Amino acid sequence: MTPNAASGPSRRKFLASTAVATAAVAGGMPLLSACGGSDGGSRDGTTSAKDAKKLLPAYVASNVVAPDIPSKNGSAIGFTSKLDLADLKTSVPEKLGKGGRVTVMSPFWGSPPKDGNAYYKAMNDLIGVDVTWQNQDGNTYDQKLGAVLASSEVPDVVVVPGWNMTGKIPSAIIGKFADLGPYLSGDAVKDFPNLAAIPTDAWQRCIFGGKLRGLPMPSSYVPNNVPLYRQDIFEKEGYEVPTSADEFLALAKEATNARARRWACLDMKWTAFYSFGVLSGEEKSLGWNEVDGKLVYRIETDEYLEALEWTRKLFAAGVVHPDAELGKSSAQDPGPKFAAGEFLVYNQDISQWWSRTAEQAAQNPEFKIWGMDIFGHDGGAPTLWAKNPASIFAFVNKKASESVIRDVLAVANVTAAPYGTKEYMATNYGVEGTHYTVKDGVPTKTDQGNIDVMNAYVMIASPAATMAHPDYPEVGKGQVEWQQRMGAFTRKSAFYGMQITEPARYTNLSNDFEQLEDDFVRGRKKMSDVQQAVSEWRSKGGDKLRDWYQKLLDENGSAAS
């Protein structure tokens, strides 16, 4: 196994691609005027850019390892060379931990390893901190999280994914967790060089209630849902990669042969959203933007309706695989049927570019998956909307002593080490010989590595978004270059990067739209049903929520660029 992109959703999909599970992404930036500079008062809102600057850590780029492909247009950095263990750099020359004990509650997908395993022991020795894990089932983590944060027994560190920041969780974060500003704001972060190298945008996402409270898992802001396609079949059949919505539909009709059990694609709704320039649906705050001086939500736009209408055309034309047509759960694991050639294109997280390649390498040597560039629906350049630059966070208990906080930061300084360092290999692969071996410059986990080295320490903090696949360097190169090309068309909407806590009364306002979208594109609902739902959204609170966001915008300014 090799490391995947350290993006927000991508990191989560990375966990999924290592036989752990999938989940859905969401998240939440900063209105000091709305939540106040203390833990009291209203906890709705965000922190102004002006006030955020006083809280953010100084950015000091790491010079320990130079990437083969530098970041461009918001992309991840890339590494394409083989791994030489003898040439690994050291980014943490001395232990910063003071030998204390730290308990961490974190979501876990799969079966947690036994306490005291060789990986945990090696990491704790490297860091100088005794980390004790309280791993919880990632699929039901929101329930456990709510119960723990409502109690008086909160662990030293709690990991909170953005998609779990619903209901009362954001307020609990403000009330239960420590201000890390005295240890990290400004030049203070220089005591922890790997944390200083985390991009500023990711740190801005860690401001809750006017304080720097979180440790981030950074990601590229380029949308990471890629139309993945069977390049080998395209080349064999002479298919051209489409450059418009009409071309895609024409190709889909040509490629589909139901009698031969071949269809063009799965549900292409997310590609449609990108192609038609629909505002981001990955997080509620990103779905707002100014249009002609007025805030508009994504579901109110013509682009949203046009994207759904085009997706419906694919279903109506019979070019969508029956699994997706019927909404079968098997469509959620597209690997086997994609490998069998039953469909040629599907949209999924960028990490599957590598994982599908690795799966098929031995048994299907002709198989080649590649990422299709997002096309503008009319054949021109697309307009893509940035996702947030971090979506998983670790928080420290407000009651923790200074020694515990510094030990937690010592842990984070190791887990945020860049690719190509001893600390990165220890965090992501464990102990050489026990958890992984290296042959021809390619690290491979052992059976024990696949048991012990799972999603634990990586949840505390991570380095800047990185693509590195020494077993398939062409895939890593392709992923980064795809992000760079798409990044050139990626814009930031009004509330990009802001950690926003909406008033609880609006939390579930738009929850039913995803199901409505799926019903519409499959022909089970009419366009009038979608338009009626938008109208009801406005009357049931959408217009008032617009006013609330407008106040944030007036007081804090726009992040759009």
From TrEMBL:
Keywords: Signal, Transport. InterPro entries: Bact_solute-bd_prot1 (IPR050490), SBP (IPR006059), TAT_signal (IPR006311). It is found in: Cell envelope. It holds the Pfam family SBP_bac_8. The keyword Transport applies. Belongs to the bacterial solute-binding protein 1 family. This is Tat pathway signal sequence domain protein. It comes from Streptomyces ambofaciens.
